[in-house]
Amino acid sequence: MPNQTITYQKNQLQSGCLYRASKSFLLLICLFACATGAHAQEQFIDSIKARIYRDLQSEDRSEKLDEAVTSTRKLLTNSDSCWSDMHYEAADPAHLERVLSYTKAYTNKQSRYYHNDWVYNCIVKTLSYWYKTKRVHWNWYSNVIGAPINTGQTLILMDGEQKDLPPALKKRLLAAMDFDGAADPRCKGGANQTDVALHYLYRGVLTRNTSVIDTAAKNSVGRIAYYNNEDGIQNDNSFFAHGPQEAIASYGAVYVYDQYNIAWYLHNTPYALKGKGLAILSSYYLNTYLRSIRNGYLDFDVLGRGVSRTGSLHAGHQTLLDEKIPQTDPANNDQWKKAKTLLDNRAAKNELLMLRHAHYWKADYVQHTGPLYSFNVRMSSVRTLRTEAGNKENLLGGFLPDGSTNVQRRGDEYFNIMPVWEWDKIPGTTAPDCPGDSVARIPKEWGIPGTSSFVGGVSDGKYGATAYDMQYHHVSAKKAWFFFDREVVCLGAGIKTAGKDGLITTINQCWLNGAVTVGTPKQIITIKNGEERSVDQAKWILHDSIGYFLPVAQHLQVSTATQTCSWSRIRTGSADKPVSGSVFKAWLEHKQANDSYAYIVVPGLADVKAMQAYDRHQIEILANTEAAQAVMHRGLDVLQVVLHKVGSVQLGDVTVKADQPCIIMLSGVHSGNAKVYVADPQQTAQKITVDLSLPGRKTIKPFTATMPAGVFAGSTAGYELDHNGMHQLTDNRNGIIE
């Protein structure tokens, strides 16, 4: 018994020791886990901060930074706390931008001002002055986005320097950044939201606050998705900003730049971008944004009001493709290598520019890109907003969303031409011809709804047709474009105006580059430089390796004159200095009612001999009326039909009929196994019944095409005809991620 008791007590003692040892071990594990977690947390914060620092240091060459300091140091006043060329009564945002330049010079080892005491004192004094006087700019963007971003970048550059900013100043700057910008209704989506997330990320790493970093990640990479008419990437792979307004390379470019930067900063951390969000971002960048670029220059149709800014057509993002995007999305590295050549003026044989046609049914925009050329069209409808004016920008862009056509081969055809443009003669548009361009002035800022419901297009991914029922500024016109391999056919019918000004359709207006020749039935005319003239019975015109054919010889206006104006004409506050240049301009004049036009654009024709050798007979215009517009390409065996009204179009033994207004394309018309593509420009039909008669097919039963619905309303429904009847094809949706 005593022995048992002793044994019991011994076992009990052993159990107690084991229990206490287990508790201690568990506590050690917890402490180790916490320490490890804390260490890991410290490591990823350091990693994020190091990438941001490296990014900021690589943005500018030391020579540029030195010049920024040297050229402005004499302007310092008020004990070196501000600059005499700044408008401080208006809280000039350039103050903080200049402070950032000084900071980059101070922290750049290659700069002559590296760790310069005088520069350091300037940084401290100019920052103190700005926040002591509590400057508030009239533009909310400068206060909510611009100032916090510049402040955050300055703090990150100075943080960790041997001589950091004074603690009290640093605390004050961080406090100024600490406001709920994410709650601002103007920052609830798109590019503005990612801008706010960026300065949250700066503040999060500076304060080592994971909660703030969480918010930054949540409101940037965590928000990448498709949005239905809200700011952001749309379900057709376009981009909206300020409501349903196409903004592919304006706010869309900022969005892409911010998202990829943030994704790279967060790479290999718990916040890393991956999965569907990464796929959506990369698809938008590859399939939409990059295809709006040719040889380093953007389509002017995708810049929004930014088209009125100097240099805006020059595409950026080279640094993204050097390292950030390939590291963020390594699965697409082959594509990124090809993409880089698009930005480096080496796109002639780029595989990304294989022939591709995309109609953006949400954005009312078309991209037709290929090895020889890009031809893009911008429109508007009752579902979208017209190109906006805002912040006193884009003052004369009234007709930009009325079928403006961007035609590029070299890429720089329109680069910085905007101040000298005649804005009532934007390429592709039908508009009043008014001296002084007053008719082109946008009547109010921040978006005007479109006026037409019949706006849309059909596409098989390679070819397509687009229609725009124009109703704007007393002008009505049924405009349509038919896109093939080498050619784009441009038609207009039912053209009329209730105004008193003349009425014109502009074929093109771009920088003059080389000779301009016009062909008539009797002669070939060379237009002299600096000349404007009328040509009767014109059959074609050639400029800059792009041929324009007129199926019916007609009166044509041509100009190669020098045009002069200033950027301030289209953007208040820009330079008043006159800009001049020789401009190629060709346009057609119309009657006041019931007129029409037709011209065929054929890029890649080098000279007059090539123009004369081109076989125009492979293109047949079957209809160009208010009821129907249709074109047959005999060489490709493709028929495209726009039915503005219920009706039919016939070509020999081929008949196309539909029970509702729509756009139809048939490929392989004479093959016996045609493919049929149908789209509803009004985006209201659930079903459209199509009746076909085709050669080699005795009877084809009418078939009912089921129209895409919801966010896909307006996209193309495809069918294939074989010996068993019609079979639906996989939808073509511009590379969106399902």
Q: Note the gap between the termini.
A: 77 Å
Report mean pLDDT, rounded to a whole number.
Answer: 92
Main beta-sheet strand count, sense and barrel state: 13 strands, antiparallel
Q: What gross morphology would you assign? A: globular
Low-pLDDT stretches are 1-22, 24-36
Please give the share of residues in helix: 25-40%
Quick recap:
This protein is an alpha+beta fold and 738 residues long. Among the domains are: 121 residues, Chondroitin AC/alginate lyase (Glycosyltransferase), CATH 1.50.10.100; 325 residues, Beta-galactosidase, Chain A, domain 5, CATH 2.70.98.10. It is built from 13 helices and 34 strands.
Overall description:
- The chain is of the alpha+beta class and 738 residues long.
- Among the domains are: 59-179, Alpha/alpha barrel (Glycosyltransferase); 404-728, Beta-galactosidase, Chain A, domain 5 (Distorted Sandwich), CATH 2.70.98.10.
- The strands form seven sheets. Strands 11, 12, 13, 14, 15, 16, 17, 18, 19, 20, 21, 22 and 23 form a 13-stranded antiparallel β-sheet that branches. A seven-stranded antiparallel β-sheet has the order 24-25-26-29-30-33-34, with no helix packed on it. It has a four-stranded antiparallel β-sheet with strand order 7-8-9-10, with no helix packed on it.
- A hairpin with a 4-residue loop joins strand 1 and strand 2 (82-83).
- 48% of the residues are buried.
- Mean pLDDT is 92; it is low at 1-22 and 24-36.
